[in-house]
Amino acid sequence: MNVVLNSTSQWQQEDREHHLHPFTDIAQLNAKGVRVITKADGVYLWDSEGEKIIDGMSGLWCVNIGYGRKELSEVAARQMDELAYYNTFFQTTTMPATSLATLLSEVTPDGLNHVFYGNSGSESNDTVVRLAWRYWAAKGQPNKTVFIARQNAYHGSTLAGSSLGGMGYMHKQGPLPLPGFEHIEQPHWYFNGADMTSDEYGIKAAGKLEEKILELGADNVAAFIGEPIQGAGGVIVPPDSYWPEIQRICRKYDILLVSDEVICGFGRTGEWFGCQSFGFEPDMMTMAKGMSSGYIPISGVMVHDRLVDVLKDSGDFNHGYTYSGHPVAAAVAQANISILRDEGLVERVKTDIGPYMQERLKAFADHPLVGQVRGRGLIAALELVKDKETHQPFDKVGEVGMICRNHCFENNIIMRATGDSMLLAPPLVITKAEIDELLDKALMCLDLTAKDIGMM
Ligand code: PXG
Known about the structure:
Layout: H1 8-18, H2 26-32, E1 37-41, E2 44-47, E3 52-55, H3 58-61, H4 70-82, H5 95-107, E4 112-118, H6 121-138, E5 146-150, H7 159-164, H8 168-171, E6 181-184, H9 189-192, H10 198-216, E7 221-226, H11 242-252, E8 256-260, H12 274-278, E9 284-287, E10 299-304, H13 305-311, H14 327-342, H15 345-351, H16 353-362, E11 370-376, E12 379-384, H17 399-410, E13 413-414, E14 416-418, E15 421-424, H18 432-452
Parallel strand pairs: 3-13, 5-6, 5-7, 7-8, 8-9
Antiparallel strand pairs: 1-2, 2-3, 4-10, 9-10, 11-12, 12-15, 14-15
This protein binds 3-[O-phosphonopyridoxyl]--amino-benzoic acid (PXG).
């Protein structure tokens, strides 16, 4: 039944009655009422009250090409008319699924020439786990099953995704992580290693991987997985020394190296993939979000030739999703990646708009609340602290971040708060004038927050 609802309050009531939201306190949302987003264009959203909101988060880190690109809706409509669905299971493919695979092998780093499709980052990380297990079994080393990841990492919400992830508040809501998922320190120089140079700390943090491998026995360890920059965890930018050292350790102990590129991929850091910004060559790479700029769900795992060479002689891989390589999603992703490539959007993040945003953000370090400004390309965090000299966090972590987030909400700017880190990841098409607007509003919200807590 289609009922026409006219007012925001009617939508809020219907939502209360029937919709459970992700990562949300139900009672709190019910008391407040949900915000209803109705349309979007470029870097702006509009809500059901007619408010225009600047989106500093690209939706949920995904709308890389910005909202409202007709090329994508046209491709989707054409593909739905032509062939709305067929699967890729029983020795069949569709043209979009195959041509997207070819395009992905072109834009991803050398050696990553095959893709396994899914519909979300979480699903693709499940695929990573099953591929790694399959690979080691095929190599005659079936005991190599344990995954090592980092504390405060985010790898999704499925059972494998949340087990790989290092979010304590997720783990404590279930018997998680599942057995065989281990976590080491995250490379957070500002809080964990500021008594050393950043590069010294990077080597030390990577050394935690070697310690964990020795503790578990390399013969039991399948892989290490990490986001080049941890996104949801608070845009933790590792020291430059970190990833090359992680790679050295993985190679030394014959452990697969997996880059979770769900946020960093498709231009966010100024290269096509975050691993290219940080100088490492993964064996597998998880992609989602920017793969279709969020216009339609699709994800994938890129698998290195050296793994495919083993897998191809190992019989059936009993894994897959009804919508693996969905033709409409694949056609949309292909159009999206073509826009990123043909309009030079990744290059623009590296040489023009990324440096512009990072340069302007540097000045935020003078703000009384801001202990650290960190970022790369078009992803950044402002770390709010109680004491800038000693890096002391606020007594109740998350409280001040939430105050600031609420000011953002009221002032029609979207920034995400993780603890007391205020995060930015705007669409890659954002203009300099729009960056100015975004950062002017961000500064205003920081000022309002500082006044609220008596620090200004
Ligand atoms: N890996 C990474 C690095 C992610 O950021 C996933 C995997 C899972 O993707 P799916 O498509 O299954 O959601 C993500 C998702 C946040 C937030 O609060 C971040 C994500 C998802 C939801 C919220 O910043 N990232």
